[in-house]
Amino acid sequence: MKNCKQNLLLLILLFTISQFSFGQNQSSIKGTISDGKLPIEFVDVILKTASDSTKVANYAVTDASGNFSLDNVPSGDYQLQFKLIGFKTNIQKVKFTGSPISIGTITLQNDTNLLNTVVVNSAKKQIQKTDEGFIFNAVSNISQSGGTATDMLKSIPTVAVDAEGGITLRGKSPMILINGKNSAITNMDQIAASSIESIEIISNPTAKYDANAESGIINIKLKKNNQSGMNGAMVLGGGFGAKGRVNSSILLNHKTEKWNFGLGYDNRFAGRTKKINAERTNYFIDDEHFINQKRNDERTEGLQNLKLNIDFSPNERNSFSFEALGNLETQDNDETLYTHVNTSANQFYSDNRRHSLELERSKVGELAFNYDRKFSDDRKSLNASITSSFNKDKENTNIDTYNYDQYQEQLGDILLQRTHNYDNENISNAIVNYAFPVSEKSIIETGYKGTFRFFDSDFETADLVNGEYVVNPISSNTFKFNEQINAIYGMLNSFIGDKENPKWKYNLGLRAENVSNNGATKNNSDKFNNDYLKLFPSASLQLNLKSDAFFKIGYSKRINRPELDQLNPFVDITDALNPHSGNPYLKPEIIHIAEMSYNKEWTKYSFSTNAFYRNATNTIKQYAELMDNGVILLMPKNIGSTITYGVETIFSLKPIGFYDANISVTAFQQNINASNLAQDVVSNAFSWYGKIINNFVPWKGGKLQIIGNYNSALATPQGKRIPIYNVDIGFQQKLGKGNARLGLVVTDMFNTLESGYKNNTALFSNNRTNKSDTRALMLTFAYTFKSDFKEILLENQFSTE
Q1: How much is the pLDDT for 799?
Q2: What 3-state DSSP class applies to 793?
Q3: Strand partners, 448
Q4: What average pLDDT does this structure show over 568-585?
Q5: pLDDT tens digits for 619-674?
Q6: What is the pLDDT of residues 273-294, one digit of tens each?
Q7: How far apart are alpha carbons 373 and 381 in whole angstroms?
């Protein structure tokens, strides 16, 4: 089997090499836009077919020199439109024969009918719809300046983020990719918001994507400058919540005709606090009956990222790129936990104070090699990539526990313990995608993806005995995990009707994934092996009602494989009464999904809605089990089957020139069959969440953004998580000629963001709330220098990778 996989990979790489060709593709239309004196930046250049002016054939935005280029344009008659608020729309007719042409300089006339006090730059749309979901451009988000990818995701429609950073789509954790690839960066707080170009939400993945995406895919695309010449930009920021926080970033780039060199660095340092309150009643345990806990956390964290990219394009058909990313993260957490326990008669039983100092250091390195091949027929394409990501994480904790009597007098000696958890992980990907036409109306996409993951963890607990730390073998162990996923897919994309405006579009796909993994602890007490081949079909049918509206139905089969932290059997004892661990015997979920969507565009409004139905077997959920000693062990389990159905809606509006908004709502019902569990569980629950993003341009060069979030209570197997809600505000003002910008951000303005849950079972009830210092104020200053692109960094207008 191993030799077969190696031969398959070798054949694919040979096939990739055989496709290298260095011909020329010059099917482009170029020009320059001016106001008669100076070039104009951010002009929308829209190419439409002459036979149907409602259909967009190509699109570009002018750079700081007023230049634009429309590439890979098929021969035909077209209409060119040049639009920018503050200027009259200019329309030109173009007959394109396939040879490159330049239309020279187009002069736009001022529109004196617009308000003189309001100027809105023509930047990227906040939401760009795609056939598989939508793209959220970071340019539109000014309320998370100085934050992380987690903060950015809080502002994205249909995405729910709880106060602890848990990310969900439609009530389940999505697959998260970095630049379209699996990464060892799994903590979204390791990515600075300032380094993000866009975030793509793929709510309806086809067979082209990993099947391990039950609720969808979130693809985070990092910035990559692609402007000519020598360019640079920098950002400085500072602020405070309960403690101070600072951040900075710098970008340098040099691009010639064939080469592009980029270097970027960003950092973020912050102090944070958290308070946790918990109450629990163990109904059938007399001694540890009533438990009250209070916890205070003092945390300092640091994040540094360094990125290098080198691109080489020998001609317009071929491009090669190399990227390297280094990430350093530090987290120090000083935690104090107070626990008071009473008996069933409400008499004193025990009291203790547990203090722990946790020091965590994480290093991540990523390397990526990419090749892209274009052809004279733009329906044909080839790309290949090899990536590798390494993560080394070290966590050391010192714990001291004091026991007290009912009069707060210390009992016995201090219990001193220490733990360490050392993790090493490597994820590598080999990807080849090839698309080619089989007829005038049909294209076949096919490809291979290999994912190779290696993980080992060393967990050790030691107690201080007679002045020396003695390892506790019962709670110390190692865990090793290896996994290979080899996948191939084939997909047919076709349409029925006129080529320029097809009435019907359909997609048929099939993905095959062979998974081979194994895991074992040091003493082999927890050992498992899995080797299986599964097929994942997908299909969709789209009816184009008009050029600005369509109706779509689809089906796909997916899988939810347990994550590493869900498989790792180590028991975390930081909170002795509420330990948690993984479960190496988890089975993957198998999910069947049906979807139905409708999209409609108007001049100033757009509306999309998506109804979905999901049937999952072997559902994986976190489950709390009461032990005989009063301890509740949290562990993921296969709880049975779950049927989820609901609807998500996105409504965008721009009723007036200085205001636009985006409103999104997701609502769903869950019906759970957990007959395999001994204790009672929640059988059904309704949940919803929504957000509104308001954008204002109060005066020239100013932008104001107000974002409101609300997540209703979300069902858990034994109860529910509490509702969460917050409001974030951001303001930015251009300075001088636009080369600089000052920003002010207030996150969680009303200090309402907190998380928690309420569990009610036959054996116990449990209420817990977590409150971090989420309210913070940040001031940022950004400046570009030696630059041909005034707002590339400020507006995040980078090409995506």
Answers
A1: 28
A2: coil
A3: 432, 488
A4: 79
A5: 888 888 888 777 888 888 888 888 999 999 999 898 888 898 989 999 999 888 87
A6: 999 999 999 998 888 899 999 9
A7: 6
Q: Considering only CA atoms, which of 707, 628, 702, 640 is closest in space to residue 671?
A: 640
* pLDDT value, residue 115: 34
Q: Are the C-beta atoms of 188 and 150 separated by less than 8 Å?
A: yes
pTM across the whole model: 0.76
**Structure-token pair, residue 753:** 């963001």
Q: Residue 233's beta-bridge partner residues?
A: 251, 784
DSSP label of 587: P
Q: Are 139 and 122 in contact (CB under 8 A)?
A: no
Pairing of strands 175-178, 217-224: parallel
Cα(288)–Cα(341) distance, integer angstroms: 6
DSSP, residue by residue, 98-111: SS-EEEEEEEPPB-
Question: In the predicted model, what is the mean pLDDT of the chain?
Answer: 83
Q: Tell me, what's the pLDDT at 63?
A: 73
The whole-angstrom distance between residue 510's C-alpha and the CA centroid of its chain comes to: 25
Dihedral Cα 676, 167, 225, 700, nearest 10 deg: 150
Give the CA distances from residue 596 to residues 136, 208, 431, 582, 645, in Å, rounded to whole numbers and listed in that order. Answer: 22, 20, 30, 36, 11
Assess contact for 80 and 46: CB atoms under 8 A. yes
Q: Are 310 and 258 in contact (CB under 8 A)?
A: no
Q: Is 420 exposed, middle or buried (0-12, 13-18, 19+ CB in 10 A)?
A: middle
Measured CA to CA, the distance from residue 730 to residue 711 in angstroms comes to 21
Q: How far apart are CA 160 and CA 167, in angstroms?
A: 6
Residue 191 CA to residue 329 CA, distance in Å, equals 10
Asked whether the predicted pLDDT for residue 487 surpasses 70, the reply is yes
Token pair in block for residue 661: 């908004």
Q: What is the pLDDT of residues 336-370, one digit of tens each?
A: 999 999 999 999 999 999 999 999 999 999 999 99
Q: Angle 300-366-584 (CA atoms, 0-180°, nearest 5)? A: 75
Rounded to an integer, what distance in angstroms lies between the CA atom of residue 776 and that of residue 145? 11
Residue 54's pLDDT band, with cuts at 50, 70 and 90, is low
Q: Which two tokens stand for residue 460?
A: 């050790």
